[in-house]
Amino acid sequence: MNAGAEAPVTLMVQTRIRDGQEDAFGRWQAQISAAVAGQPGFLEQSVLPPNPPAQPDWVILQRFASQSGAVAWLRSDKRQALLAEAQGLLAGLDDVHLVPDGAGGALPAPASAVIATKVKPGQEAAFRRWEQRIAAAQARAPGFQGYRFQPPVPGVQEDWLAILRFDSDRTLQSWMESPERQALLAESAAFTEAFHARIVRTGFEPWFASGGTAGPAVPPAWKQNMVVIALLYPVVFLFGAAVQTPFLMRYEGLPFWFALFIGNVVSVLLLSRLVPWFGKLLGWWLTPDGRRDRRRDVAGAGLMLGIYALCLLVFSQV
Hints:
Blueprint: E1 9-15, H1 22-37, E2 42-48, E3 58-64, H2 67-75, H3 77-86, E4 95-100, E5 111-119, H4 124-139, E6 144-150, E7 160-166, H5 169-176, H6 179-188, E8 192-201, H7 221-251, H8 256-281, H9 283-286, H10 294-315
Antiparallel strand pairs: 1-3, 1-4, 2-3, 5-7, 5-8, 6-7
């Protein structure tokens, strides 16, 4: 990379909405999506809706080709005007973090914690030594999947940022509440002024990515689940009937538990290709325009139920 080149960065915004303001926030978020799409250097956006009780926040991930492009968007008059319009919708202040090196390291795993820490002036070296100790401790925790540590970005992000990634809510909470972590946090009081953590939880969102557009939000979890079931059932049934039982088990003599494992691997690989393709066909229902439409929701759910019924009818004859 050239000396003057900049790496991609992701803006991670976590915000909490007042009760009853979800529809208004959806309309406002559609305006933000349209505005950021025209920002120089913008690459893609993902919007993760709340998933209570583990994740009560909306999480907006906006990826830019460079830090300068992301900072220009943060400071733009258009964004500031839109934020002013949204103040009546928000419960408390947003958390806004800038994470370099591309979206891959910034996007959350099935359960993630975003921890921002304000360090006392002159205590940065002590904090870094302590951070190395807690990083080693959390790496030993069950379910740990990864960790990113980001120092402040002068003029943009004054806090030290850590993103912890775990394989489930349960393992993440176990670490967050563990006596070992609480003891380490107590030690940090000598050189930190404040810290706070927010939880991010994801499910099938990577399969429903917007493909680089700044369009609508990631679909609600119930829609994602319905689409996955509509594809998972026929894939598992057909693989079992055509490959697993006659070939892997009868011809190759593999035990059921091992043949089933192979079938699961094949199913996940196939779904990683099929779900994005099928999701585009259902864009009218999954992510129509960032706004809720009850009739459209019912129509899409009815279509999914029809697909389920058709599969059951057809496969019952096999």
